[in-house]
Design goal:
Layout: E1 4-9, H1 18-33, E2 36-40, H2 46-57, E3 62-67, H3 71-74, E4 82-86, H4 89-99, E5 102-105, H5 110-124, E6 133-136, H6 143-154, E7 166-169, H7 172-178
Parallel strand pairs: 1-2, 1-5, 2-3, 3-4, 5-6, 6-7
Helix pairs in contact: 1-2
Amino acid sequence: MIKAKIAVFCGSMKGPNLEHQVLAKKITTYLVKENYGIIYGGGQNGLMGIVANTALDLGGQVTGIIPEFLDNREKINKRLNKLIITKTMEERKKIFLNKADFFLALPGGGGTIEEISLVISANQLKIIKNKPIIIYNYKNYWSGLIKQYQVVPSKNYSKKDILSFFTVCKNLKELSKLLPNKL
């Protein structure tokens, strides 16, 4: 039985750091063994492909959400338990916000940064409620982004509540304490 559905945001590329690939496998293995369902970007490339395929290999439940036009770039993963193909990125984002119970950001690029910001903004604007994002700050990968979010309220560009819409962890032990046991 699935405890909760977690949207995992991460790179559609593997990046140069093999440690990030190992991290993606390790985190996904933990999530599946703890009975979390995985929602992700639907492609088979990069770290997100590693997340999906690791979960599937372990018998996990994986839902992919991908705009049709990305098939040429990211190749749709056909092994998934559930595949949702959208027409636009905007439609994809709405489905992520609705289907996920919470969110996790692993290393990634511009798309992952956008997804982190989407979740924080959606919480702040009350488009979603009580759906936090956990930023996995492996070896300080996200430190610059985290610092910028900490600066924004002090410059009066947001209320301080913006800091309550994300939590940060740097290892699996910290992550395990942040994950909900059941909904």
